[in-house]
Amino acid sequence: xxxxxxxxxxxxxxxxxxxxxxxxxxxxxxxxxxxxxxxxxxxxxxxxxxxxxxxxxxxxxxxxxxxxxxxxxxxxxxxxxxxxxxxxxxxxxxxxxxxxxxxxxxxxxxxxxxxxxxxxxxxxxxxxxxxxxxxxxxxxxxxxxxxxxxxxxxxxxxxxxxxxxxxxxxxxxxxxxxxxxxxxxxxxxxxxxxxxxxxxxxxxxxxxxxxxxxxxxxxxxxxxxxxxxxxxxxxxxxxxxxxxxxxxxxxxxxxxxxxxxxxxxxxxxxxxxxxxxxxxxxxxxxxxxxxxxxxxxxxxxxxxxxxxxxxxxxxxxxxxxxxxxxxxxxxxxxxxxxxxxxxxxxxxxxxxxxxxxxx
Length: 359
What we know:
By secondary structure, this protein is an alpha/beta fold. It is 33% helix and 33% strand. The chain has helices at 2-18, 76-80, 99-104, 108-116, 133-137, 146-160, 168-176, 217-224, 283-310, 318-324, 331-338; strands at residues 30-31, 34-39, 44-53, 61-70, 87-88, 94-98, 125-129, 183-191, 194-204, 207-212, 231-235, 241-257, 262-276, 343-358. An eight-stranded mixed β-sheet has the order 4-3-2-6-7-8-9-10. It has a four-stranded mixed β-sheet with strand order 11-12-13-14, with helices on both faces. A hairpin with a 5-residue loop joins β11 (231-235) and β12. α8 (217-224) crosses α9. The longest helix has 28 residues, at 283-310. The radius of gyration is 25 Å and the shape is globular.
């Protein structure tokens, strides 16, 4: 009997607490889906939010509101005075930073409020904009709202193209993890209603210090992530170019020497030739394509790694990896001495599983 009374009491208390939760009616609030920050000067930024207005039998209308504020203060207070309904961040899917702001000020003071906001999900996408975020957010993209379009653009390129996995959670994990440099995608507006992912921005202490160009992104993803889909063209000396599609890849690291530190990266790539612009695609040609693909991977990956060492950044995470293999690891010694002398070897293993159309 006591157990039944306790259960009834618990249910009654639970329902009482539910009644205390603040309710929001969707028609009575403004749901921010995207926000962008542009550089004004060392102390001030321009913030722009995009709020979709859903209309019957029409694509959403993208309303944008902008306000100037000090970097360490929220812009939402000023924007609240421009809207008829309360602003809510629960639907926020993308946060954008202008390239100028990222290079001169950095993004950490602006990212911090989002990681502390319980209404913001860890799957939130961060991105740098080559240009002004206000201009980009003021366009009209797709039929589901600008922020949703940008979010889908990033997600699609992660799953099917050359963009490594990225979101707020992964950015913060890399930032707080010693021995790893965080990175986020870079966007650019290329027309009135068009934009493109035009690279990956690398951030040291929150500031952009380098970027991966579109033609380098394939090799960068091989080093920091894995492919479940993808495509890459391969040219051979004997004539012809193959489009290797449905690429699946994986990589693993091996610490092979201590003095000097030497790391071997094993990269495995499986793919299918869907197109070949040449004459007959013989088994010999397929073998030649595999070998050339392996050479391209080794050459381009080593080129990227040397550039990262020269700039003293580590987006691949060599420091973190060597730490996991070393007792009493000293990060100061690693940064000042060991990293610049690090020897990296690439072992690429490419397999062409099928061949298809010949042009």
